[in-house]
């Protein structure tokens, strides 16, 4: 879309960004400004990149705040992170980041695909245009957006409130650890990042089992994303069937 050169940065076994490789890539491109994507929960392994460490690396490599832009991709876990324990990492505009995005159809559960992007006002104004027939300014790339999606989000957030959202997050995290322990007891190699409700395990050999449970697989691994509607009975049924 932007016709800009992209540089891939390696990842650790956990799915988190490889900070040593990031440092190397930045040093190799010191003559250019940097646009970085920091993940708040990767798709497959649910890994959360350490924003503070990324900022420290940028500073150490000689990138001043006016020479980098950081986007924080929080599709699923971005809506969960604020409700974790007090010592969980904080993603905030008090830090020199440019934008954050979260999905509305994942943790919040909107019935249509939708998302929210939060950015600094000066960036919004830079790409906004006045639309005469709407009698307003538009800041979307496509020039259009779903009017129902904000209503779905407002309804869920208002109905559940802060405490309801926190209870959902705590249930997801607790049940993710329960599933991890169940799988380990069943002799299945399993991984769960500390800040994640995505349980990763070795890919089942039986394709009918994969299809029945609609497992998302990549290579030799599969994962289960434990959401608020999943209870212990369903986890037990899944593990028993996998054995």
UniProtKB/TrEMBL annotation:
Molecular-function annotations in GO: carboxy-lyase activity; pyridoxal phosphate binding
Entry keyword annotation includes Lyase: yes
InterPro entries linked to this entry: Group_II_Decarboxylase, PyrdxlP-dep_de-COase, PyrdxlP-dep_Trfase, PyrdxlP-dep_Trfase_major, PyrdxlP-dep_Trfase_small, Pyridoxal-P_BS
Biological processes, Gene Ontology terms: carboxylic acid metabolic process
Keyword list, A-Z: Decarboxylase, Lyase, Pyridoxal phosphate
Residues recorded with modification N6-(pyridoxal phosphate)lysine: 106
Source organism, top-level taxon: Eukaryota
Keyword Lyase: yes
One Pfam match: Pyridoxal_deC
Cofactor: pyridoxal 5'-phosphate
Family that this chain belongs to: Belongs to the group II decarboxylase family.
Protein name: Histidine decarboxylase
Species of origin: Haematococcus lacustris
